[in-house]
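Team,

Forwarding the record for the chain on the shared tracking sheet. I've put the sequence and predicted structure together so nobody has to dig through attachments.
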Amino acid sequence: MLNFICNLYVFFIFAGGESDCSIEVLAQRDTVYEASPGKELWINCTVQFCNDSPPQVFWYKLEKTAVPVNVSGGSHIRQEWRESSHLQGISYLIFQNILLSDSGSYQCTSDDIVSHRINVSVSRELTFICNLMHLND
């Protein structure tokens, strides 16, 4: 009987260790990225995870509701994962040839854990200011 109790106790300790770990999705609060139309922009969030298998990360644009970002092969937006350390990685949302319509708030999510909002501002004014500064040189 003692052997059975000890084995059961060890099993609960081992099983409990796994459930204490949860995924964390990190993006600095009030992050703002600015870009000009046609440029490339990378936004990111850091994800800490619990085992050697990186989690799936999804990106959403916040409109009236959260809309999944299209990162398919035909889109000008793609997603990339890079492991930054053991049990931590960075999910990048990469806008290739960014559009004015890409302006807005974005969030990344993994395992129902959601990041802070990441704000993207695409404006022609940035191009004008840069060109004007170049002319004044």
